[in-house]
Amino acid sequence: MASVLTESQSKELQKAIIGYLSTINADKTAATMRDELGFNVGFTHTYGKLAHILEKKWTTNTLLQRKVMTLEAQVDRLGKALESFPQSQSRNQEPFKWLPVQPAYTLKSHRAAITSVAFHPAFSSLASSSEDCTIKIWNWELGELEKTFKGHTATITGLDFGGNINHILLASCSNDLLIKLWDPSKDYANIRTLSGHGHTVSCVRFLTPNQNTLVSASRDTSIRFWDVLTGSCVKTIFTDCGWIRDLAPSYDGRWLISGSSDHNATIWNVASGNSQSILRGHGSPLECCAFAPPTSHSYLIALVGAKEPQVRSSAGFVATGGRDKTIKLWDLQGGLIKTLVGHDNWVRGLVFHPGGRFLLSVGDDRSIKCWNLAEGARLWKTLDNIHDGFISCIRWAPCAVSPIERHHSPKETLETRPVSEEEMRTSGFPCVLATGSTDSKVHVFA
C-alpha cells in the first residue's frame, strides 16, 4: 500500500519513534529498529528531541479528535432541535397575517416577576429582567439559557438593545436609580453606569436602533438623553407629568411619546425638547405607549376617514394603554381616533405588528389581544390565560435593518413616504415575539 507520507516525512517519523523508544528505556527495540532502517548508532542522541515532538503531535491529535467528536455531537443535537422547532406557524403562514398561537418555548429560570424583555437586533439572543435583580440571556431559537448576570441592587425595570450595528449594547434600568450598559461582545461586561435620575428609572430606549443615544424616563418626572459612548447626559427634559412610566421613540428618532401617572401621554420633539401635544382621555395612570410603524399608516388614515394621506413623517400615529383597561389610538396632533375596549384589567404592554395590520396588547387579565387595524381596529383574536400571572411586557423581534434605514438613502429626509406593504413584503420581517409575566416565565412565540 502506498504511503501517504513523503520520503522525508517517513524518515522523520521513524527517527521520532526510535527516539521515543529510547526515552522509555526500550533500548533493545530502538536498536533493532535503528539497525533495520540503517540509521547510525549516534542517532538516538542526535535526534532524541524528535521524541518530544512525537508526544506533542500525539496529544494534539487526540485533543483534535475529541473536539471533532464534540462538534459532531453538537451539530447532531442542533439539527434535531431545528427539526423539532415549532416554526410551522410562521413558515406556512403569510407573515402579514401571522399572529401568535401557542408558545414555542417557555423560558424558566427567574425567581421573581419578569419586568422587561428585549431582542438582540442581529443574533438569536433574548434578554429578560426581573424583580430578582438579574438579567438573563436566552437563545430564543433553542429555548436555552445562555447567561445570567447581576449588577443592579434593586428591581430591574427596563431593557433595550441598541447602538451602532457594529457595537450593539444592552441597556438596563432599575429602582436603584441607575442605568447600566452591558457589552455582548465582552460576555456582557458592565462597561458603564449612568447616574443622574433622582428616583426609580422606569424605562430605557435607544433613540433609534443604530444610534448611540439612549433615552430614559423616571419617577423623578424627567426624561434624559445619554451618549452611550461617553456615558454623559447630553439633554434633560423636565416635565410636570408626574411619574413617567413608559416612553417610546418614533421610527425616525425625531419624536418621543411618554405615558405618565397623571393619566396623560405627551408627544415630545427630540430636537427642541418641547412638547408637541398632550393626549388626554385616559381615566387612570398610563402603563404603556407605542408609535405605529409606517406600515400601519394606511389603515389608521382610513380609520380617521381621511381621503388623502396627511402623514408625511414616519411618526403619524401612536397607541396608549393604561389602568383604565382601555387602549387609545391617537394622531400626532393629539386627536383621539378610537378607544379599544376588551381587557378586563390593566393594560401593561403594546406592540404593533411589523406588517401594520394588527396591534397586540397584554395585561393583568393574563391575555394577549390582537386588534385588526384593517377592519376598524376591532378585536380580532384573544389568547386567554397564556401565563399563570399578570402579563407585564411584550416585545416583537426587530428587523435586522429598520424600515426607515432600508428604504431611504442618506441624502433623503425622513419626511418622505411611509414604507409600503410591498416593500416590507420584499424585505421581510421576523415573526417572533416574547412576553413576560409575574409568574416569572418568558414565553417565546414563533
Automatic annotation (TrEMBL):
Principal location class: cytoplasm
Q: What is this protein called?
A: Nuclear distribution protein nudF
Q: How does it assemble?
A: Self-associates. Interacts with nudE and dynein.
Q: From which domain of life does this come?
A: Eukaryota
The protein's job, in short, is: Positively regulates the activity of the minus-end directed microtubule motor protein dynein. May enhance dynein-mediated microtubule sliding by targeting dynein to the microtubule plus end. Required for nuclear migration during vegetative growth as well as development. Required for retrograde early endosome (EE) transport from the hyphal tip. Required for localization of dynein to the mitotic spindle poles. Recruits additional proteins to the dynein complex at SPBs.
Q: Where are the WD repeats?
A: 107-148, 149-183, 194-236, 244-278, 317-333, 340-381
Q: How does the record comment on the protein's domains?
A: Dimerization mediated by the LisH domain may be required to activate dynein.
**What Gene Ontology biological process does one annotation of this record name?**
establishment of mitotic spindle orientation
Entries under Pfam families matching the protein: LisH_PAC1 (PF24951), WD40 (PF00400)
Write the record's keywords in alphabetical order, separated by commas: Cell cycle, Cell division, Coiled coil, Cytoplasm, Cytoskeleton, Microtubule, Mitosis, Repeat, Transport, WD repeat
Please state which protein family the record places this protein in: Belongs to the WD repeat LIS1/nudF family.
What Gene Ontology terms describe what this protein does at the molecular function level?
dynein complex binding
Q: Where in the cell is it found?
A: Cytoplasm, Cytoskeleton; Cytoplasm, Cytoskeleton, Spindle pole
Domain PAC1-like LisH-like dimerisation: where? 8-38
Q: Which InterPro entries match?
A: Dynein_regulator_LIS1, LIS1_N, LisH, PAC1-like_LisH-like_dom, WD40/YVTN_repeat-like_dom_sf, WD40_PAC1, WD40_repeat_CS, WD40_repeat_dom_sf
Q: Which HAMAP family match?
A: lis1
Spell out the GO cellular component terms annotated for this protein, sorted alphabetically and separated by semicolons. cytoplasm; microtubule; microtubule associated complex; spindle pole
